[in-house]
Amino acid sequence: MQNRNSNNNNSNSNSIRTKKRPSNQATGSFSQGGRQGGQTKKPVRKSNIDISLLSKKALPLEEINYETNNTFEDLKIDKRILANLSAKGYTQPTEIQDKVIQILISGKDVLGIARTGTGKTAAFLVPMIHNIINRDTPFSTLILAPTRELALQIHDEFKTLNKGLNITSACFIGGTNVNKDVLKAKAKPTVVIATPGRLLDMWDRRVLNLRTFQHLILDEFDKMLDMGFVKDVRKIVEYMQSREQTALFSATLDNSQRIIIGELLKDPIEVKVSSGEASSDHVEQETIKVSEDQDKMDVLIKMLNQNDFVKVIVFAETKRWVDRINIKLRKSGIKSDVIHGNKSQNYRQNALDGFKQGKVTVLIATDIAARGIDVSDITHVINYQLPSTMDNYIHRIGRTGRAGKVGKAFTFIN
Question: 362-365 and 336-339: which strand pairing?
């Protein structure tokens, strides 16, 4: 089942205590490579990525397929959930599902590491739903995601698995109508899926009581525990005074976050389907060296005009560069659109829908999209600018090479 899919931390919260994280030391400086569409100045960024790791052949699919003798019925899942899984055409679990569903049903804490596109969403939703409908005591669940798109994706998957079960739910994300969210919060949903900022807004308005939630799930926890989110996570955890079980899931594991993870989880069971360090084995990875006298935009346009570039995500580091690339591509006749934090939620959803439906060939994005896009059959990922960390690189290229297919990823370097 294939789904889905800085500020220094100086908080004085007593909920989660961490040592001050060392600043990332770059292993080298890289220019953005070549002339930038007529720009004479080439901004230089620091990156901790070893460029030699960005060229890699994809392993033959038969060497990485996971085989299990278990069906979902063997995992002792409630028959009502099994009916919904069957309606979706799913009979056998993926590796991460096979290994964590029973653990989560038993009530234990879990740290799950698995590549994108391996069914992590259902791996925590299925046991969560099972426990909600089979416990005599309340088991309200809060699921946190770092991006709006990922939160919506989780909620959509939940609704298909919840069909006929009548578990109330709500999704709270930025960029939506606050008054409507207030009404949803006052209805006291059993399952809440949210981004941290809007969730805390509901708490501050006193329309959502976090003390009533027993179960916490952090999806893409490596980002949730990063310095941009950890302050909000601390607040949320502190307010969840009835928390009984916690599960953390991501494709990557930052060992510098081990202290925070240790504070969140109690006697956890770690399940690693992937190491959390290596990039996807399903993706053919290449670097493209752009010389000083080349226009990188011209190189990009020539690539995108090739017939096999059918559904492509182009990543850039800043919102300004995303918009700039989009303008250039559209002028060249390429059907493109953008997704980044300055766009409204409605715009972002329309751009994503156009990409899914094939109306848009190229989606240009900042790293916000690397953790929130679940689009099948993405043929290529192109890193127009080198990401700042290997974790971001892994999440970027994880958008392709899904559902048993080999994808391709190109990274421009100078």
Answer: parallel
Cα dihedral across residues 245, 258, 204, 159: positive or negative: negative
Residue 274: predicted pLDDT:
65
d(CA 176, CA 173): 7
Compute the chain's Rg from CA coordinates: 21
- List the structure tokens of 298: 């011209």
* Element containing residue 131 per DSSP (H, E): helix 120-134
Asked if 314 and 325 count as a contact pair (C-beta separation under 8 A), the reply is: yes
Q: Whole-angstrom Cα distance, residue 377 to residue 356?
A: 9
Q: Which secondary-structure segment (H or E) carries 296?
A: helix 296-304
pLDDT, residue 30, reads 29
Strands ordered across the beta sheet of 336-339: 283-289, 407-413, 380-383, 312-315, 362-365, 336-339
DSSP character at residue 23: P
CA gap 298, 318 in Å, rounded: 20
In whole angstroms, how far apart are CA 159 and each of 11, 83, 152, 287, 299? 36, 14, 11, 40, 43
Handedness of CA 67, 86, 104, 215 (dihedral sign): positive
Task: Collect all residues with Cβ–Cβ distance below 8 Å to 387 and sequence separation of at least 6.
Answer: 47, 49, 315, 317, 367, 393, 396
Question: Which residue, 399, 395, 46, 4, is CA-closest to 224?
Answer: 395
pLDDT (0 to 100) of residue 60 = 56
Are 401 and 280 contacting, i.e. CB atoms less than 8 angstroms apart?
yes
Which among 311, 307, 338 is positioned nearest to 324, based on CA atoms?
338
For residue 406, what are the contacts with CB-CB under 8 A and spacing of at least 6?
58, 61, 282, 283, 284
User: Residue 69 gets which letter from DSSP?
Assistant: S
Average pLDDT per block of 10 residues along the chain, 414 residues long: 40 38 33 40 56 68 67 94 94 93 97 87 97 94 93 95 97 93 97 97 97 96 83 95 96 86 96 67 87 91 94 93 96 94 85 91 84 79 90 84 79 89
In degrees, rounded to 5, the angle at the alpha carbon of residue 34 between the alpha carbons of residues 30 and 40 is 100
Between CA 267 and CA 384 the distance in angstroms is: 42
